[in-house]
Amino acid sequence: MALNAVALITGAGSGIGRAIALRLAKDGYNIAINDIRRNEGFDKVQDEIKKMGRETVECIADVSNEGQVKGMVDATTKKLGGLDVWDKCFDINAKGVFLCYKYAAQQMIQQGRGGRIIGACSQVGKQGAIYSATKFTVRSLTQSAAMALQPHDITVNAYAPGIVDTPLLTAARERVLQLGRPLDTLAGETGTPEEIAALVSYLVSKEARYVTGQSVNINGGRLFD
């Protein structure tokens, strides 16, 4: 990790994004946090990051809007001095993933010090379902970006979680049960945002330089590649 390295975390107001922002702040990164709108959780994340002695900046933006994504990267680099890690936590659609990868890569190439780009896939991105088409696109974009950016010492990976205990799970639980699908994993438990954040912490580390183009399962054994 470069001195005063900077990570930009999208969807950082709650759930997995929040956990990743706090974990990387603990790891020593200055953090730019993004969400589509400010909320109580968003402000709390900033306060917790500051208590760790790290710098933080807020970037309210819609990641499916190209101008706003570019503006978010520009604001981050201006206020925090660069961009070393991008974590695209919440996927609105494939376009949003593409835009985030694009502008993160452009900034990292310009800096010339390498970098780490992390996307959010899902276990359904490795299964046959209508919803999986968008998630499979994340895998494809991750692989393509990894090949293109390897000469610049930029790795691109994604995490593919199963069912994770977040605020979204409560809303989704009823719908999933209506479809007649089980919520439990083979281990009989759901994952936690902190467990996802621990995986991301490794993927952005210098020890993970040899890992790129991967969508890493973290699902309690519910799905095997």
From TrEMBL:
It comes from Agaricus bisporus var. burnettii (strain JB137-S8 / ATCC MYA-4627 / FGSC 10392) (White button mushroom). It comes from the Eukaryota. Belongs to the short-chain dehydrogenases/reductases (SDR) family. It holds the Pfam family adh_short_C2. InterPro entries: NAD(P)-bd_dom_sf (IPR036291), SDR_fam (IPR002347). The lineage of its organism: Eukaryota, Fungi, Dikarya, Basidiomycota, Agaricomycotina. This is Uncharacterized protein. PANTHER family: 3-OXOACYL-(ACYL-CARRIER-PROTEIN) REDUCTASE (PTHR42760:SF121), SHORT-CHAIN DEHYDROGENASES/REDUCTASES FAMILY MEMBER (PTHR42760). GO terms for molecular function: oxidoreductase activity, acting on the CH-OH group of donors, NAD or NADP as acceptor.
